[in-house]
Amino acid sequence: MQSNVIAVLFALASALTIAWGTVIRHRIAEEAPGDGTTIRSAPIIAVISRPLWWAGTFAALAGYALQIAALGFGTLLVVQPVLVLSLMFTFPMSAVYDGRRISKAETFWSLVLTVAVAVLVILGKPSPGLLEPPLNRWLPALAVGGLLLLLIDRLAYTRVRRQKALLLGMVTGGVMGYVAVLSKAFVDIFVHQGFVGILTSWESYALLAGAVLGTAVQQSSFNAGALRQSLPAMTVTEPIFAFVLGYAVLGEKFAVSGLSWTWMALALVAMVVSTFALSRRGVG
């Protein structure tokens, strides 16, 4: 059943849940970074040994489950912009955690982000795409995007701390963009073929691998630097990858023409600018 209203509600719940999990896992990374001199003191071991990190991780998984539910009711081009609002939820939670007040600038950019997302979803009127995209639509997208993200990942490990966090944030966003598209394919397969379909489809296993990889890279980006350096990159890169893949692989489209494309472009620019502005001001 297609219902963009229900999809948006599930996506908002997902964004809120993901935001809480993000704040928790980053704070744990800051408090227990590890020095890397031994296996037990390695950053990833230091954080996963904390029970609160697991609480944050399970929150992220719950948020992902809500995202899956949203994709069951609406298109990727509806759900993905709404998920960007997770940033708007993230830094007020971070502010509460730090015991500080939210500034007027943060409130302003939050409103800009909300309006931009509303324009993309309401004016865009995304239309559904292919239920089962053929493999020849997947292969070029997987090859080109995978190579690009691998190059950025390798480049990240030759850079200083701040640049490394930014680049790993971009890789995280790209991987999660693939996860979003595979999630939509997974939902469509389940709806039309049931459990047998998801057990016998390559998309299910690619989705699992992508989710694990994305979580690992995300934690590495958290450990590499402050959240304001990695979060904007992953928050903006994910919908960009998802939009491109939604068009190229799933065949979803925005139902706009003429002057409406100008408003859509302005909304996308506003979403990117407000995302960076918020993350620079609101998160440590």
Jot down its keywords.
81% helix, two-stranded antiparallel sheet, single chain, mainly alpha, 284 residues, 11 helices
List the helices and strands and how they pair.
Layout: H1 4-31, H2 43-48, H3 51-73, H4 76-83, H5 86-98, H6 104-123, E1 126-127, H7 135-156, H8 161-200, H9 202-224, H10 227-250, E2 253-254, H11 260-282
Antiparallel strand pairs: 1-2
Helix pairs in contact: 1-3, 1-4, 1-5, 3-8, 4-6, 4-10, 5-11, 6-11, 7-8, 8-9, 8-10, 9-10, 10-11
Stretches where pLDDT is under 50 for at least 5 consecutive residues are 35-41
Mean pLDDT: 81
Distance between the termini: 41 Å
Widest β-sheet, arrangement of strands: 1-2
Helix proportion: over 70%
For the sheet with most strands, the description reads: 2 strands, antiparallel
The total count of strands amounts to 2
The 3D shape can be described as globular
Structural class: mainly alpha
Structural description of this entry:
There is one protein chain. This protein has 284 residues and is mainly alpha-helical. The protein has one domain (4-282). Helix content is 81%, strand content 1%. It contains 11 helices and 2 strands, in the order ααααααβααααβα. A two-stranded antiparallel sheet has the order 1-2. Helix 8 packs antiparallel against helix 9 (202-224). The radius of gyration is 18 Å and the shape is globular. The model is unreliable at 35-41 (pLDDT under 50). Keywords: Membrane, Transmembrane, Transmembrane helix. This is DMT family transporter. The chain crosses the membrane at residues 61-87, 108-126, 138-156, 165-183, 195-217, 229-249, 261-279. It comes from Corynebacterium pygosceleis.
